[in-house]
Amino acid sequence: MEACTSKSSLLLHSPLRTIPKLRLCTSISSEDVAYGRCTVTDQHLQIEGKNYSKATFDHIFRTDATQDDMYSAFLSDTINSVFSGNDATVLAMGAKANGKDERLYGNSVSRNGLVQMAITHLMNAIDEKKDPEERIQVRMSAIMVSQKDSSIVDLLSPFNPDPRHRVVKIVDDARTGVFIDNESEIRVETIDQALFYLNTAVDHRLIQDEQSHRTSHVFISLSLYSYKMGDKMQGGRRRLCFLDMGIGERNSTNGGMTMPALGSILLAMVQRNKHIPSRDSSVCQLIRCALSNSRFTTFLFSYGSKNDDNENIAHLACKISRTRAKSVMGHGRKPSGVKRLSLPLDVNTGRIVIMMKRKALYMETKRLIIDKERKREREMDVSFESKREYRQKLDEKRDDFGIMIAQPSIPLMKAKSK
Question: What GO biological process terms are annotated to this protein in UniProt (predicted)?
Fold first, then answer.
């Protein structure tokens, strides 16, 4: 058993080579149907008596859907994305309910939740696709962030042999991005060992009451460190993450984040905005750590016993769906014929705004001068053409053109002298 807590290992992130993919899924449990929370028709998804388009979600898992159906729908592609060299994230959001816990972590007997299935298939795929010249290490980490006191708890710290017990914190670095520092990354070599650590971390989540579940978030990650020996050593890191999010405080009187506040953070991350609400909070930093480097993100929404919570979740799913549609249209739009100017970025002085204004004023003035010159040239061309036609008519030999004046036979000078 080994643990990795060095900061240098966190610098090997997957390169941002492709456009991030986003999937929206929702799960309906038997309790939701029994209490009339959710019903599915041919064209709509009814949540608390309100109709939502089924086109909002890529997959709607009903009560008869099995775990294998969910694995084949999105989890298989997620694992393949990790083997392709990209980071992937599965974000599950919803209130505390038996349906959500069984989907993610399974029941107490089978333990065949989505997280357990991902670990099993990931470890089996490593053994099947292993290259003799390549060495792959799998390390697991699990932390829990609480909104009440902004605390970060390392759930695998009891298995960390490091005696220093350093404080876990989320660092926002301008060069490397957001990452978790001093977390316990336990090396796992077998499936049973990984499931043992996972079940120990999940027990902290399952024993929480409804209020603690709302204001706490569990982040589980599986990091694959690959090293290939040849003429020179090559390596990198890929990561598969599971973020089990609560839905926040019921109201803002307690000072914590509510569901609309969490939704605004998720929307800002999906839209790739520079300004993110509550940027300095631990919850926002955790979301950024999970989604900033992810190239394949899946949202899995579930529902609980509160009507307003279910409506907020449905509204958030619709907003993310509209944002995704706009981003797809933006990436697929053909470039216009206008050629954009490439302005030099003065990093030292930071006067890019002034440079852009001056450049725009210069270009506008130059355009007006060019238009004026072209207009004058066109006028000159017209006058020149008209004069040339008139000159050609003068050169023509015509009998009836003009009046011929006879010259006097006696010169004028001689006439004056006489």
Answer: microtubule-based movement
As a residue count, the chain comes to 418
What whole-number distance in Å separates Cα of residue 336 and Cα of residue 333? 9
8 A C-beta contact, residue 237 and residue 258: no
> How far, in Å, CA of 95 to CA of 103, rounded?
13
| DSSP state letters, 225-248 | EEEE-SSS-EEEEEEEEEEEE---
pLDDT of residue 401: 41
Q: Which two tokens stand for residue 380?
A: 């000159």
Q: Which of 35, 58, 117 is nearest to 299 (CA)?
A: 58
Whether the CB-CB separation of 244 and 205 falls below 8 Å is answered with: yes
The answer to whether the beta carbons of residues 296 and 81 sit under 8 Å apart is: yes
Dihedral angle over CA of 350, 352, 354, 360, nearest 10: 170
pLDDT > 90 in the chain, percent: 31
Highest-pLDDT range among 42-56, 74-88, 229-243, 247-261: 74-88
pTM greater than 0.85 (yes/no): no
Q: Which residue has the tokens 């599915």?
A: 40
Neighbour tally for 229: CB within 10 Å? 11
pLDDT over threshold 80, residue 298: yes
To which residue do tokens 């993100």 refer? 297
Q: Give percent of the chain with pLDDT exceeding 70.
A: 74
